[in-house]
Each structure stands twice: as C-alpha cells, then as structure tokens.
Write a sequence for this structure.
C-alpha cells in the first residue's frame, strides 16, 4: 500500500522524537512492502517564527491531503506566562483540531510490566490498569464565545455542546466498549452544569442501542479521586473537552509510563497521532528525549488509520523488547545502568524489527 | 466566651458524625469555660422531604445569626442519576454558599504518620505533604447563566469572573502563604480560557504587594499530574471554583487519610466548617462512619472562627492519640484488630480530652 503522511514535528524535542518514529515507520514499510510519502509541514512556535502564525494554511492543506498526520509536540517558553500574548503556539493546536474536525481524542493508559515500579502508585493499585479515555476535542469551553466586559474587569467563557456532538463522541465510546469489556463510564458534572445534563441524557438515550454495554455515570470530581485509588476499575471513559484535558493528564502519570503513552485524535477528514508528552524545551537538541511514545503513536496510526494490525504489532513487539533489554533513554534507565541517546534507541528498534 | 453555632447535620451519615463533633465540642467548651448554643437547622434531602426546598429560609436565618456553621454532609441516592430532577439537595449547598457569601473554600491535605500506609501512593511520594487549596466557591461556571437553545438540542454554561472576585480570593492566598513557606501556586488554564487570563493577570499584579511570596503559575492539567507525582512540592494553591472541585478531591485521596480531612468555607457573614467526605448513604444509621473529619472541622472552627488555638490544639491532640492507640472506625482499623463504632470513638475522645 501507499500512504501520504503529514509530518508535523513541531517544537522543542518534537523533531528529535519524530525523527525516530519516521525511521521505524520506514523500516516497517520496507519490511511489509508499503510506500510512505512523508509530507513535512510547520506548526507551533517554529511556524510563528517562520510565517507569523502557528497553523499556516499550507500546513492545513497538507494535512487535508494526507492519509494521516504524525505530530511531535508544540510549545516554547518564550510564549508562556504572558497572558496578553496575541499569538501563541497552542492556538495552532486548537485551530488544527477545529479545522481538521479532530473530535475524539483517544488516550489509552496502560502499564508496562517492566516499568511498573516507576509509578508513584503502589504496585497493587496499578497492576492490570488498561483504560481508554475518549475526550471530546472540538467543542466545549475551548471553542465557545469568550471575552471581557466592564472595561476588562469581567471575563467570561462559554461552554456549549449540541446533542449531535455528544452523540458522535458517545457512539465511538459505545463501539470501543463493545470491543473490550463492555464497560463505559460517562464523566460529567450533571449536578451543576447544563451541558453535563445534556451529555448524561444523550448517553442515557443511547444505552438502548447497545444493550450489552454497562454504562456508569460519575461526576468528574469523583473520577479524579478514583483514578488515583483504583485506576484498574475503569475501562472506557467518555467525557467533554476540559474534563478530558485534566483527567487524561492525571491518568497519564499513574502508570509510571507517561513518557511512553501514545494518543490519537480521530477526525472527520483525517486522523492525527501524537505522543502525549509536551515539547520539553529544556531537552531540545540534546538527543536525550524518549522517542517511544511517538514510535507507539506511529503503531496506533498503522493499526487505526491504515488497518494494518501486523505492522502495529511488530512495532509494539520491538518496543517491548527494547524495554526488556534496557535499551532506553535516561528517563527510564535503572540506576547506574547504561543509557542510550534518542537516536540510538531508534537505531536499535530499526535493527531489531 | 459564648458562641452560637448553627448545626446543619444534613443527610446520610451527617447526623451521626455531627453528633460526635458536638460531644467533643461541648467537652472542650466545658474544659475551657465556654458556652455553646447549638442551633439545629435542616438542609439537603431531609429539608426537601420536610419543607420542599433544600436550603429553607429559616435555615438561612439561623446561619446568618450564628458565629459559625458546623455542617455534616448532604445528598441522597433518590436524587441521583436523574438529570431532569427539578429539586436537588446540591442546589441547597450552592444556594447556601451564595447566600452566605462563602467565597473561599479552605481545603488542607496533610498526612498522619500512623495512616501513611493507607495511601495509594508510595510512602516516599507522600511523606511531608502539607498543602492547602483555596478554592473560589461563589463564582465561575457554578453560578453563571446556563440553559438550552434550539429546542433543547444545545446546552450552555457560562463561566464568569470579575477582577474583584479574583482579588478577594487571591488576597487570602497571599496572606496564608505568608504564614507558611511563602510559596503560592495559581492554578488556571490561561492558554485557553479568558477567565483564567483574568485570574493570572490579577494575581500577577498583586505580587508586588507581597514581595516575599514566590508565585508560580501552572495549568490545571499539569497540576492534576504533579499532585500525584510530587504532592509535597506544593504549599498554598489558589484556583477557581470548578478546577478547585476537581483538584481538591484528587488531592484528598493522595494522603490516605481522606476520611479525616476537614475543611472550612470562609464567608462574608459567617464561616462554615465541614468534613470533605460525602453523605455515604449506604452507611446511614449503622454507627460505623468515621467521625474524625467532622471533629477536626470543629477544631478548625475553634481556631479560625473563634481564635481559640489551645482548644483546637487539644482536639487535634486527642484525635492523634486515638489514631495512635487504634481507637478507630472500621475504615481505618488494621486487619484483624478491634474496630470501634462512631459513637464509641466520640466517647473515647471526650473521655481522653
Ligand atoms: C496546549 C493546550 C491548549 C492543550 C489542551 O488543553 O487541549 C493540551 O493541554 C492538550 O491536552 O493537548
Ligand atoms: C455537590 C456538588 C455540587 C459540590 C460541588 O461541586 O461544589 C461538591 O462536589 C463539593 O465539592 O462540595
């Protein structure tokens, strides 16, 4: 098969980790007789520096033409802590999500047996954790009307959801639950928010179409607690944009494998695959960043965007092998053991595929 | 001294835990020569059952006359999971917060050495944790305009903040930081929300009035992560209502002492003291609920509302003694050791004051 993949390396360590994912993807393509046409494009701080906007039209066109988008990370400290900055890298991210219609952010949290001791949680709490959040990504307070009144003394943000938006996301949740343990948790704040009440009543009405799925409804504050107490009690969780932002990040640290977590953003036009970690500016150019989350995001891309299960399995297998053999960057290395550079890990993966 | 204390026992286990806090408070009053006039009043599901509304006017009048309010818990399962219920116990809570002007919810998270092994987190992660959230409690999306459009197909909630609201809460945060390690963390989502940008710029402008305080600004998603990774890296945190709801609950489970955490809601007219746990309906009437969070809330009341430090210290000392000696309810009891009833714990505290 032949694929066009938009390659958005972004800022900070983005280009370094993307580089390794490209090496591994090319090796897989060669092995399985596929052809990949990489289409690099600018986004984030590097796009602001180059052309003044964080998600240029040319980049959008490339993404729209692509069969999938592979994304690194964006963000640069020079744009932080300035509430009045008018152009920010994050705006590029939001614009991209909206323009590509990336409505469902798929965020798995699972454990690697060899890394379980890295977790801040006790082993017995975290063992067997294998959950997936579906975060709504193009609605809610992120995209509602916002602004100032009273000479800037009053600020407001609006959270809006339509029934159709909830249905679209919830449908993915029910379908995913059907392929797993048939447990679905709808996370909301229906005791306070009207949008949450719309979420809850919409999901309740969909239950009859999926009689095998057991649905629970939990408040976001309760989920924030139980994620730390009993993460392995969850399977598929669906939630709105802002709750998803907070809870998926919370979930990412419980496994001890945060540096390895991939994600997908499923869209109307195309889908995007990216590591969940940020641009880690302090490490830029040092060749020390862990590339595995990006490599595993490429595996998700092969499986979900192209339907190539064997290719994805081959990538996951070689990643597991590298972990078992300790071919890891400094963040994962056991005390006093050898650490490998970003590019060395990538080379090892390619050689051992 | 003589105090009028409004006593809002509420629902579920509320009356049982309140009962023990009253016993301990009365014993303290006797010992230190104070006089307490308890003024019981209805709130929550029991108020709906009795008079049709969850925060009756009579209750409000009693609270307004009181020097402090001691609160149990509210909520009853018959009102849950019904997004269309028109009267809900939680509405009483929100109305009470608004009418009493309870703008700052003070939520400490600390560890009890004897309970540290109950934490889902590893000991080395949690040791030394001693943080306080100040959650804004009368603004934000809880109280903004909300409703439906398009025949109910679109729902919206509005989050609003004024500069004055932010200043009032932040002032408390700076003042509290001055009495502790002079570290203040402002939690927001300034990369997305206009209200967060107002929060950040308002707090930034106040920094010059407190030159000794080191202020950090962190995004809510990052805080949700770091609370699990390094809770002891925080001291005082200030945040808006909804973020505070999620993060304070998350923080409450990390110490392993969730059943013991007290809280205060500081108001314009009077202040309210309550355990952070809920109404735990399944345990109602069984005399098994842990009364210590409510007893420690009474200690906060003696110290903060009445300025009586010795009285508060005496309560905390006897609570520590009960923990050390294992005079605890079943939730805290070591395996195979004797457990005590709610009222037995209270009796023991009174006898050992
Ligand atoms: C950078 C920021 C706008 C973004 C978000 O809040 O969605 C990020 O935290 C994420 O989760 O991808
Ligand atoms: C019951 C609910 C409305 C309330 C809130 O969200 O404020 C509760 O979760 C709390 O934190 O006191």
């Amino acid at each position: 098969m032949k694929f066009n993949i938009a390659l958005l390396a972004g800022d900070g360590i983005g280009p370094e980790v993307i580089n390794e994912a490209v090496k591994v993807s090319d090796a897989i393509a060669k092995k399985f007789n596929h052809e990949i046409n990489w289409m690099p494009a600018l986004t984030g701080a590097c796009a602001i520096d180059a052309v003044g906007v964080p998600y240029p039209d040319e980049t959008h066109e490339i993404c729209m033409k692509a069969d999938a988008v592979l994304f690194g990370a964006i963000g640069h400290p020079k744009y932080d802590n300035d509430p009045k900055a008018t152009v920010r890298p994050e705006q590029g991210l939001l614009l991209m999500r909206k323009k590509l219609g990336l409505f469902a952010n798929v965020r798995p949290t699972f454990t690697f047996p060899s890394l379980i001791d890295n977790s801040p949680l006790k082993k017995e709490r975290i063992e067997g954790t294998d959950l997936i959040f579906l975060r709504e990504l193009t609605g809610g307070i992120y995209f509602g009307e916002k602004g100032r009144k009273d000479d800037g003394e009053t600020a407001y943000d609006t959270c809006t959801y339509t029934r159709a938006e909830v249905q679209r996301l919830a449908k993915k949740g029910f379908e995913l639950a059907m392929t797993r343990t048939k447990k679905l948790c709808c996370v909301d704040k229906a005791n306070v928010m009207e949008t949450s009440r719309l979420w809850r009543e919409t999901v309740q009405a969909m239950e009859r179409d999926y009689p095998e799925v057991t649905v629970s409804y939990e408040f976001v504050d309760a989920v924030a607690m139980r994620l730390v107490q009993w993460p392995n009690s969850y399977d598929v969780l669906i939630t709105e944009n802002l709750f998803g932002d907070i809870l998926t990040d919370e979930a990412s640290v419980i496994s001890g494998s945060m540096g390895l977590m991939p994600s997908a953003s499923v869209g109307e036009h195309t889908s995007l695959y990216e590591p969940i970690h940020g641009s880690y500016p302090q490490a830029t150019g040092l060749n020390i960043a862990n590339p595995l989350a990006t490599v595993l995001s490429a595996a998700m891309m092969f499986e979900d965007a192209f339907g190539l299960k064997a290719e994805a399995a081959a990538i996951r297998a070689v990643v597991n092998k590298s972990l078992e053999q300790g071919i890891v960057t400094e963040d994962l290395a056991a005390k006093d053991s050898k650490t490998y550079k970003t590019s060395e890990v990538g080379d090892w993966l390619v050689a051992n595929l």
